[in-house]
Amino acid sequence: MSTFVGGKLKLKGGDPVKGGVKKKKKKSSGSELALTSSLQEQDPAGTAGEDKPKAAEPVKTKDGFILPDRPKEADRRTEAEKKHAARVAKLEEERLRKQATKGYRDRVKDFNEHLASLSEHHDIPKVGPG
Question: What is the pLDDT, as a whole number, of residue 11?
Answer without folding.
Answer: 72
